[in-house]
Amino acid sequence: MGLKTKISIIVLAILFFSCNSKSKKDSVVRAIKKQETGKKNNDTSSTKTGLNCSDFKFDEYYYNDKNTFKNGSIKMFSFTDNPHAESLNKLILKNSLYILTRDNYSNKKELESFISNMRFSKYFSTNSEYFQNLTAEELNEIDESIATEVFCIEKIIVYKTTLDLRRDKGSPYFEYINIDLNEMKLVDFNSLISSDMQENFNKTILLYATNHKKEIVNNYEGKIAQRADQLLSNYQDVFEEPKYDYNKLKFKIDSNDFSHFNSIGLVFNISIADGNFPSNSEQDEIERYTSEITIPYKKIKRFLNKKNSLYSSINNQK
What is the pTM of this model? Predict the structure, then answer.
């Protein structure tokens, strides 16, 4: 509480005790409460950025340091258009497993310290001059290729990174970072759901997934179709069997499986135990794989926490 505020309340209190009528005393009490409430509201609002996706512009940035170099480019937010861009960029770098090679750092704390103090222009630039000057031999040694996408819904940014490893036939690999622009931090998904509605929310998404098993399988086929190995053909032999039985899919899903937002709804990772595959007789296990399912926004709006600062961002989606 500031000095001016304290003085104002003291003056109002003196007036209160000097009042002769009850009505005057009541008006002074209301004034004191208003003074205190106004201060509290100001304290709360000061923690919010009030930022929206439209406040940011991004550019393609290329690696220009040999120790961190990857083929391709990443989208980073423009420093000249918004003073919050640096904080947003560093939040992404700290939470990405792919943009910077973590093997160069002994632990997460060391990496975060490096990012907090890094001079961005030393490692990234808006031109690909460094790449263009590499020799054929140097290019041949580059194993990692990277690409990024940015998706926005009002006060939420979803930052997608795709990492392709030339010598890893299981790639590409994907990651999604969900950012709450209002507080410049990662989205706390469970806080978006009303606490008294959590159980019903989990039942709803489980029921939706249960009724969309074919979509879950199709999503997994699409996922492994991008791989360089033969995994797709191995799975297709089973998926395309006329006797393939979706009732043999076993899974659980709840709010903790949330992955990211997209234009349609909420995307959840879903771990499948598929009884259509021959069991491993030695380990007595059935085939397991991880797919995903998108729950449309209209299916979950009634469970949203209206007090959450991101409520309107999600509730406005069709």
Answer: 0.81
